[in-house]
Each structure stands twice: as structure tokens, then as C-alpha cells.
Amino acid sequence: MSDQPAFHRRTFFKGGLAVTAAGALTTLAPAAASAAVGSGSTSGGVGARAAEPTIHTTADWGAQSPTQDPIILDHAPTYIVVHHTAGSNSTDYSLDRAYTISRSIQQLHMDNGWGDSGQQFTNSRGGHITEGRHHSLDAVQGGTQHVQGAHVANNNSTCIGIENEGIYVDVDVTEALWNSLVDLVAWIAAQYGLGTDSILGHRDFNSTECPGTVLYGRLPELRDAVGARLGARSAEPTSWPLLTPGDAGPQVRTAQTLLRDRGVNVAKDGVFTAAMAREVAKFKRANGVTQLACGAAVHRNADESGFLGSDVWPLLVSGAEREDMKGRLARIG
Length: 333
Fold this sequence. Notes:
six-stranded mixed beta sheet
């Protein structure tokens, strides 16, 4: 049975412990493929080595047996994707807490019909790394296979995901979490021969707050740290901007112009209003874009259905113009 959840969401679990890793369809759709910003380049990554960090297995934290057979692909992932759990920023940094988080995530994901934990690895605020989906650790150790997860809509066959405990919309990660994240990403990149431009955030694939504005803003620093660890040149991908209600400026005006060209009823004033969000949500539904309801949005009392990001821009810009438009948006951001 394939791992294709009927819906796609991130939400709080009981007690504020853990949330879903967002994941839905596993087929790489054309729009989603063009939305992925990294080149998947192995430049500077081939032949590099990094020490394997301490990773606590599914057996260590008492995982349930999966209810679906794993999908093990005979190729390496193309991207390493950083998430946040959108749960509470706990001050319990113990290993027991990390185990509890892992069990809570798995239970919720199995309740969602995903068969197992959606993400391959989980990183706690205490810096404890746990294996998420069964067989993920063995696959990375082998360096040639990829256990397909359920954490990035339409790109699970290309992405290996790391859930980081907490919500990082407007606060930073702990030092312990950051250090373990660098260790884990460097090891995964070395095992698969991936370049630093393959290190992305969830919002680089879907219109979501995840992994939080603060943690997402530190991804260039993460790429630099991993590059230094591997002795590789740090390559910075160009990303589609995420626009949300309350934003204003030239990027919003550009989006409004492109939406109007496609018959969407929005103003052209450079202000992302609630009315614009409703029109964007309608446009997404009409074009088959997976709707999100990221738990992180609860922090800002908003849902994500009207967010305009990496899975919407490619629908507004023709294929030949996408890279040019992406660069122009980055310059005016």
C-alpha cells in the first residue's frame, strides 16, 4: 500500500508535544518539480566524509510497527529538507523528552493514515536525534537508497526530512538543536554526495510557514556550516518568496500583476490583504495545489490556505521565464 495520505496538514498533538510532518502525494508533479529551488548538485560533496552523529533508532524510543510496507527507493534523495514541528518550545531537553516526541509524532501520523512517522529523522531541542520512519537510518548508512517519507507534498520521492522540535516563527532554536542539526545534515550530505544547495526548507516546496521564519533565515548559515564541515564550497540556491497576509511591497505587487493576468480578482496595490488571500486560496484549489494548515500558523492566528509560495509561483510564470523571475524577485525582496 503506497504512502499517500488523504490530506496534508501540520497540527498540534495532545499536550503540545508533537505535530505532523506535512506530507501528501508522493508523485513528483510537474509544478512541484519546477518549484524545487536547489539543483540537487553534488558539487563539492562527492567523496566528502562526515562522522555519523548519535542517532537513536526506532527500537530505542519504542516505535510501533508500521501499518504499511515501507517504500524503499533505489536512488539517493535529491534534497535534505528542514522542518519545525510547530509544537511548544519546551525547556525539557532530556532524552526521554526526545523519545516522547518521537512516539507522539508517529502516533499522530499513523492516525492520519500515513503508516509510520512521516519524516526520516527528528531533532529535539536538547540536541537528541531520533530515527523517524523505520529503515531510514539503514538507508542513509548505505548511501544508495532512500526510504520514501510523507513530509513534503508532491516531492517525497526526492526529499529526506528532518523535523526540529519547536516553533521558530519568531524565536531561535537552542544551541544544542542547532549543533545536532549541523551534524546530521553534514552526515546525510556526505553519505549521499549532496551539495549544500540541496539543503532546503519545507517552504521551498510548499506554501507554508515551515520551518519558521527564524530557522528558515538561518539556512544559509546551515549551508555554510555543512560546507565547512565537508570542505566543500557553499552554494546558495535561489528561492521563491513566501508571501502571506500583511506583507506589502514590490514582490506582492508582482504577484498581483501575475494573478490578474490569469483572471484572478485581486487589487494591484502591493498589499497582501485578507481578500487577496481568499482569492489565492481559490486559485490554488482550482489548480490542484495541496492545501495546508500548518500548526505554525496558529501562532499568528491564521491558516495557510491563502499563502503564496513555491508551489504557486510556477503556475504564474511560464517555464522559460521562471529562473529569471525567481532572481528578479530575490533582488527586490
